[in-house]
Amino acid sequence: MKALVLLELEVPGDTAVDYQYPATGNPPQSSGTSLSAHADVTVTEASLRALGVGRALAGTGSLAAVVFGDADAGGGLPGVLAEHGVGDVYLVGSAVVAGYAPQAWARVIAGLIEETGATAVLAAATDRGNEVMAHLGAITGLPMAANCLSVSAPAPADGGYVITRQRWAGLLEEEAVLDAPVALLTVAAEAIPPTEADAPSGSGAPPEAAEVHRVVPDISGMAPSPGAVCAPAIPDGDLVVRAVESPVRDGGGGASLATARVVVGGGRGVGGADGFAPLEELASLLGGVVGVSRVVTSEGWRPHRQQVGQTGTKITPELYLACGISGAIQHIAGCSGAKHIIAINTDPGAPILAHADYAVIGDLHEIIPALVAAIRARSAAA
Amino acid sequence: MEILVCVKRVPTVGGRITLTGDGLGVDTRMSGFTISPHEECAVEEAVRITERLGGTVSVLTLGPESAIEQLRGALALGAGRAVLLETDGREYGPIATATAIASEIGSRAAAEPGYDLALFGNEASDTGDYQVGIRVAHLLGWPVVTGIKSLDVSADGVVARREYRGVEEAYSLPLPAVVTVKEGLNLPRYPSLPGRLRAKRAPVERVEIKDVSLPEGLRKTRLRVPEGGTHQATVLGEGVAAVPELVRVLDELGILS
Ligand SMILES: Cc1cc2nc3c(=O)[nH]c(=O)nc-3n(C[C@H](O)[C@H](O)[C@H](O)COP(=O)(O)OP(=O)(O)OC[C@H]3O[C@@H](n4cnc5c(N)ncnc54)[C@H](O)[C@@H]3O)c2cc1C
Ligand SMILES: Nc1ncnc2c1ncn2[C@@H]1O[C@H](COP(=O)(O)O)[C@@H](O)[C@H]1O
User: Fold this and answer.
1) Distance (Å) from the C-alpha of residue A359 to the closest C-alpha of chain B?
2) Is the CA virtual torsion A167, A349, A317, A285 positive or negative?
3) For a designed S-S bond to A33, which of A69, A106, A315, A350 qualifies (C-beta 3.0 to 4.6 A apart)?
4) Residue A150 pairs with which residues in a beta bridge?
5) Residue B58 pLDDT > 70
6) Tell me, what CATH number does B47's domain have?
C-alpha cells in the first residue's frame, strides 16, 4: 500500500506573489513562489491532518508527499515530513508548473501515480485540495470521495476501501465503499483531531529526512539528474486556467478570516450594520478579525467574505468568541475547527452553548464594551 | 451570451436531519425542497449577465419529475428556458450526473448556438461532492475554475476571482467555460409576482437520459447523524459582572499574551 499526499505550504510573511500573466504561450516567467528564500516554510495544519490519515491508511506500506513550489530541498521540510512518516517527497518546481494551475497540478499527480505505483492519493478538503483532486478524478476517470473522515485499507471482504465522509456539511456522516484501483480522497481536516509528529510505524529507526525527488519537465533527449522524476508532458490546455495572485483588495490589513488566531463573531444579536464597531475594536485588541453569521451578510450589514459557516469560510482560530449567534448547524460547520469557543448570548438555551467551552449570558452591547475596557485597563497596568 | 445554470433539487433542512428507516436517505416527508445557496447565486449572476449583455439563461436539473419545481423557481428569477434531465428517481453519482449534463450541452451545441458559459454550484448541499462542474468541463474540453466569488464576463472571456488564504486569485478564461461559484458572489433577488406567474406557465423541456451507467465506484452503505453529545458550556456569569472572569479565562487560554 502506497499513499501519496498533496501538501499545501504556508510561506510566512509572503502570501502574495505577482505572476506575470501572458495571454498565451509558455508558463509565466516569474520568480514563482520561491520557497528556498524562506527557511521557515511550514506545512498547513490541514495538510498535516491529511498526512495523518494517509499514514494510517498506508500502515506498514509507504507514505509519500507531493509539494508544488520551488521548495529548498536543503531546508527543514524533508526533516519535518520524515517526522510525520513521509519516506519520499516529490518537489514540483516552477520549471514544471509556475504558480497555481489546478489542472496542470492534477496532470503532474497523475504522472506520479504511474511513476510511484501509489494506490491512494489524498489532500486536505480545502478549496485547492478539492479542486485538484476533482481534476485528478476527471483526468484518470476514477471516483473521488470528498470530505472523508476516515479510510481503511481495502479488504476483499469489504469490496474496497471503507470510508466515512461528511455530507450536508457535517450534518450527516456517510459510510461508503470505494471500489477503485487508486483511491482519490480529500480529508475534512477540521473535523478530525490533529496528528502528532511521530516516527513511522515501519521497522527500524526512522529516517532523518524524507528522500527528495525533484520533478523535472519531460524534455526529450535529456536524462534527468539522479533522483529526479520526469513530469508527464503538460498539454497547453491544462495551463489555460492559472491563478494570478495579488493581495486582497479590501483586506483590512491582510489578516484573513481563514487563518486568523482570534475571530470575534457577530450574529443577528448585533442588531444592525452600525453595531459592529465594538466587535471590531475587540478583534483588533486581540489581534484578530471579525466573522459573522449568514443573517448578517444576507441583511447586508457586512460583506459575505466575513461569513463563517457551511457556505462561508471555515475558520480554525485559537479562540472564537461568538456574540449574538444562535449556533445553527450550518454556522457550526464553519467554526467547529476553533480550538476554543466562548459564547456571549442573552439566551442560556441557545444551541451555541452546546458547542462552546465557556459562555457569558447577557447583552453583547453591554458586555463587549466592558470587556474592551477591562482588557485596556489590564494592559495599561502591566 | 448563452448561459447554462445547473441546479440540484435537495431537501430543505433545518437544525436536524431525520433519516429514512433503511438509513440510506433523508426523510423528506415533512420537508420542502430547495437548491443550494451557491446555485441561487449562480442563477442570479446569469440573469444579471444577460440583462447586461443580452442572451438567454437556461436552467438545467437532473432529477425526478418533481425537480421541475426548482426549475420554475429559477424561471421566476429571470431564466428563460428550463431543461429537465429526467431520472427514474435513482441516485446519480457525480460521474453519471456529469456525463448526462455534458452530453446535453454537447447535443445543444450541435443543433443551435451552443452555450458560452456553464455555471455550477461549488458543491451541492446534500452530497457535497465538489466535482460535477469539473467533470463536465473535462468531458467538453472546456476550461474550468471553482469556488468563484466575483465574475466579470465579456464577449472575449471571463475573469473570475476568489480568495485563498488571504490572497486574491484572478483567473482569465476564454469562452466557452465552466465556472463553479459560491455564495457571496451576489445577493440574489426575490422573485417578483409577474416572474412567478410567467414561470408557472413556461414550458419545461424534458430530455431522456441515454447511455449512463450508474455504478461508479463509490457505494453508500449507510448514513448516520453524528452524535450531538451532552456537552454544555461552563457559564462564567451574567452580564457585565462576568467580565473579570471572562478576562481571566482569556488570559488562561493565552489569548491576552
Ligand atoms: C444551506 C444553508 C447554508 C447556510 N450557511 C450558513 C453559513 O455559512 N453561516 C451561517 O452563519 N449560517 C448559515 N446558514 C443559516 C443558519 O441556518 C442560520 O439561519 C444562521 O446561522 C443564524 O444566524 P444568527 O445566529 O446570527 O441568527 P439567529 O439564529 O437569529 O440568532 C441570534 C442569536 O442572538 C442572540 N441575541 C439576540 N440579541 C442579543 C444581544 N443583545 N446580546 C447577545 N445575544 C443576543 C439570540 O439569543 C440568538 O441566539 C445556512 C443555512 C442554510 C439552509
Ligand atoms: N442532479 C444535478 N442536476 C443539476 N446539476 C447538478 C446536479 N448535481 C450536481 N449538480 C451541479 O453540480 C454542482 C456540484 O455538485 P457536486 O459535485 O455533487 O457537489 C452543484 O452545485 C450543481 O450546480
Assistant:
1) 5
2) positive
3) A69
4) A164
5) yes
6) 3.40.50.620
Q: Which ligand is nearest to the CA of B126?
A: 2
Atom of ligand 1 nearest to the CA of A293: 11
The pTM (predicted TM-score) of the whole model is 0.90
The predicted pLDDT at position B137 comes to 98
Domain coverage including residue B34: 2-208
Q: Which three cell numbers stand for residue A72?
A: 529548498
Residue A370: how many CB atoms within 10 A of its CB? 19
Residue pLDDT, tens place only, B15-53: 678 899 898 999 988 889 999 999 999 999 999 999 999
- A365 contact B CB<8A: no
CA distance B92 to B107: 20
A268 Cα to the center of ligand 1, angstroms: 6
- Asked whether the beta carbons of B236 and B242 are under 8 A apart, the reply is yes
For residue A340, the chain B residue with the least C-alpha distance is B253
Cα–Cα distance between A338 and A313 in angstroms, integer?
Answer: 12
| pLDDT value at residue A151 | 96
B48 part of a folded domain: yes
Q: Could you tell me if residue B229 is inside a domain?
A: no
- More confident: A146 or A25: A146
Residue B252, C-beta contacts closer than 8 angstroms, at least 6 positions apart = none
- Chain A residues in contact with B19 by the CB 8 A cut-off are 172
- Taking contacts as CB-CB distances below 8 angstroms, the residues of chain A near B220 are 174-176
Cβ-Cβ contacts under 8 Å, B223 against chain A:
167, 172-175
Distances (CA, A) of A352 to A309, A316, A321: 13, 17, 11
Taking an 8 Å cut-off on Cβ atoms, the answer to whether A286 and B219 are in contact is: no
Residue type, A202: G
**What is the CATH code of the structural domain delimited by A254-381?**
3.40.50.1220
Question: Is residue A236 within 8 angstroms of chain B, CB to CB?
Answer: no
Cell 483532486 belongs to residue: A133
Q: Cβ(B104) to ligand 2 under 6 A?
A: no
Per the structure, the count of domains in chain B is 1
Q: What is the pLDDT of residues A110-163, one digit of tens each?
A: 999 999 999 999 999 999 999 999 999 999 999 999 999 999 988 888 889 999
What is the model's pLDDT at position A217? 84
Residue at B226 is within a domain: no
Over residues A247-273, mean pLDDT? 81
A309 neighbors A323 (Cβ within 8 angstroms): no
**Interface touch B234/A357, C-beta < 8 Å:** yes
Q: What is the pLDDT of residue A252?
A: 47
B228 part of a folded domain: no
Which positions in chain B touch A249 (Cβ < 8 Å)?
Answer: 168
Q: Count Cα neighbours of B124 within 13 Å in the Cβ-side half-sphere.
A: 22
Say whether B247 and A374 touch across the interface (CB within 8 A).
Answer: yes
Every domain of chain A with CATH number 3.40.50.620 lies at 2-239
Whether the pLDDT of residue A223 is over 80: the answer is no
Task: Tell me, using a 6 A CB cutoff, whether residue B63 lines ligand 2.
Answer: yes
Cβ neighbourhood burial of A220 (10 Å; 0-12, 13-18, 19+): exposed
Task: Please tell me whether residue A1 adopts helix, strand or coil conformation.
Answer: coil
- The CATH code of domain A2-239 reads 3.40.50.620
* A139 SS3 class: helix
- Can you say whether the dihedral through the CA atoms of A288, A316, A368, A304 is positive or negative? positive
